[in-house]
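Homework help board

Subject: predicted structure for assignment chain

Our instructor gave us this sequence and asked us to write out the predicted structure in token form, then describe one feature. I got the tokens but I'm not sure how to describe them. Can anyone check?
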Amino acid sequence: MYEALGGNDNGAMSLHVRAAREFCSHLITREPMARSLPLAGILFEAYAYFAALSHLERRALELMPDQDPIISDIDCIKTYQTFGSYMGCAYQLYELIPTISRLVLYEKRSISRNDDPKLQALYEDTKRAVADWTPDEHQAHNYAETMAGMIVQKTLLMLLHECRIVEGQGPQHVMRDIQPLIEETMSLAEIISKEPVSCVLAWPMMITGSMMVEKRQRHRLLSLFGTHPTHTALAEQTVRLLNLVWEDDDKSVFGITGLGTVAKQHKTYMCYA
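My token output:
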């Protein structure tokens, strides 16, 4: 949490997540008493949240296991009364982030060429799971949490559209699908910008911003960051990286792959939180 609020840009977040993985796995499987402690529930969910988001940064993803039992089956921590503090009603979507990130960061060429039937089937199944998601009625305590979940959903759909961009080319042929999602995401974010749940929406707004090609949308996002009640170093880092993407003359610098490109060029790390 400290690294997230501080906008850590040296990759320390992924190292903390890796260290916490063994600790959390041990407690969940071998320490039954931990299941009755509310604080343990918050910490387990915090781990699952930050571990899922670590998959969005390619260099951090290299430190992640192919299968993390806590992320792939978040049901194992749903019994805590504190559950939803980080992921709200959208925990099923967070379970899909590792798969989606690997599709975008490692399999874009095959998906854009449609030359691997098994991979294409995984892509279509994942896309359908995101599109068909509905808020968990037991976890959505108010309209703001529901809208936050919808923002996560639309952001993941944008990432899946990014998979279809041909390597080395710009995003022109996918913008027809992405533009409506950007507008919908921004409208939802503006409605809940003063709500507590907005504090965990920096990462979808960073991804949304990385796909904005219109100056009008970019100004709208910067205005949203500027008026947020909790201005943090994380917000400053987000704006700095987005400006690097927007100012790059290479039209293929787009989405999370574009964020990764400029972060590497400027010897920094993205801190998704």
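Reply (TA_rk): Your tokens look well-formed. For the description, you could write something like this. Residues 179 and 212 are 8 Å apart (CA to CA). That's the kind of observation they're looking for.
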